[in-house]
Amino acid sequence: MMPTPVDLLIEARWIIPVEPADTTLEHHAVAVHNGRIVAVLPTAEARLRYTAAETVSLPEHILTPGLINLHCHAAMTLMRGLADDLPLMRWLQEAIWPTEARHASTAFVRDGSLLAAAEMLRGGITTCNDMYFYPEATAEAFDRVGLRAVLGITIIEFPSQYASDADDYLHKGLATFDAWRDHPLIRFALAPHAPYTVADATLERIGSLADELELPIHIHIHETAQEVEDSLRTCGQRPITRLETLGLLGPNLIGVHAVHLNDGDIERLALHGCAVAHCPTSNMKLASGAAPVARLLDKGLNVGLGTDGAASNNRLDLFREMQQASLLAKLSTGDATALPAHRALRMATLDGARALGLDHEIGSIATGKAADLCAVHIADPDALPCFHPVSHLIHVLGRHDVSDVWVAGQQRLQGGRLLQITNTELLSTARLWQNRLRQ
Ligand SMILES: CSC[C@H]1O[C@@H](n2cnc3c(O)ncnc32)[C@H](O)[C@@H]1O
Ligand SMILES: [Zn+2]
């Protein structure tokens, strides 16, 4: 039989497709054509079956699906390390919101999101679920370097330079949605900031719009104990109960943080098939608490992983989140079997994809899916020997070991170097904003 022509053949020492679970393929290859995976098969067989326009050999590497950052505020890279060691509400009210009020603009969001996209791609992240002001500027930045994204049509009840009130946020966000809706890598979600910053009437409207436009809803929930107490005092309901009453709970809801949950909250989230974006580093750094991830998983909830913004993390590094999630689950339950390595990887890939309604497209290395791929080099003596590649991914290797990244079959990172942007440009952009923010 004549070999079939394909665009790209990636031959790897190990491939972890994520699905089927606990599978590690050795000496396998991924054939890619028109941005999609057309086969995953033993390398020897691939060489007979395909002629590739380009062949990439990864002899000391693990190939995984591209990682999915289920919660981020990309532009906040410009506020990295600006305000450490504060709890959430003091951090927001005393440091972050005043800085945003002074500086957030189209240029701020475009440049901050560009730095974020570069950081994420370098660290193996191929999709980012983002929530911030000026989503059109984030779209421009992500498009420039080829990061796949779900952008928030962000709504908050307070005025900003971006929008004057909830109506204006919705109006501007929906205009961005219309302008970018045919882009192959950019999708949208409705992103009300949090139950404590968005009014009932606005939330109801968001629920109806999400149904009408078939969009996910991306919202911070139950991040701190104070949030739940304040809601009980002011509305007589816990925030999740209030969202249920207003018709927002459903399989399209991504609840971010979900730290302070009682059994009733978990039942409600499970009953409606909601997803959770777990952000372990941000939750620890702001001392918000440890989300009850093991209990959520026991109840069948879908849990993905997010970095949150670089002002509360202070990195956009899903390798670190995977390890933190695994360690924190073990520590907080006293159970060493909690959140094993493969589960952590699944949370950062396929489960994130499912939360976004994109699991038919991304999240695993499977025939028919988009070729969003991440290669991790494992040759450093500090990382050897290696008996279980998945365990190494979570507990030994890090984002600095990521060598090559593809989004929709297009190479974005090659041998640790970004192909669409130079370090010189990124450094000068970061320095410019460091000077502006310092003043
Ligand atoms: C309206 S754009 C998003 C808004 O969210 C703020 N933010 C960043 N991190 C958090 C967090 O952990 N909890 C709540 N709000 C957060 C960000 O500064 C923007 O103002
Ligand atoms: Zn957040």
TrEMBL record:
Domain Amidohydrolase-related: 62-410
Keyword Ion transport appears in the UniProt entry: no
CDD domains linked: ATZ_TRZ_like
Binding site for substrate: E100, H193, E223, D308
Catalytic activity: S-adenosyl-L-homocysteine + H2O + H(+) = S-inosyl-L-homocysteine + NH4(+); S-methyl-5'-thioadenosine + H2O + H(+) = S-methyl-5'-thioinosine + NH4(+)
InterPro entries: Amidohydro-rel, Deaminase_MtaD/DadD, Metal-dep_hydrolase_composite, Metal_Hydrolase, MTA/SAH_deaminase
EC number, as in UniProt: 3.5.4.28, 3.5.4.31
Gene3D superfamilies: Metal-dependent hydrolases (3.20.20.140), Urease, subunit C, domain 1 (2.30.40.10)
Gene Ontology MF terms in the entry: 5'-methylthioadenosine deaminase activity; metal ion binding; S-adenosylhomocysteine deaminase activity
Top-level division of the source organism's lineage: Bacteria
Cofactor: binding details: Binds 1 zinc ion per subunit.
Known role: Catalyzes the deamination of 5-methylthioadenosine and S-adenosyl-L-homocysteine into 5-methylthioinosine and S-inosyl-L-homocysteine, respectively. Is also able to deaminate adenosine.
Family: Belongs to the metallo-dependent hydrolases superfamily. ATZ/TRZ family. Belongs to the metallo-dependent hydrolases superfamily. MTA/SAH deaminase family.
Record's protein name: 5-methylthioadenosine/S-adenosylhomocysteine deaminase
Species assigned in the record: Zoogloea ramigera
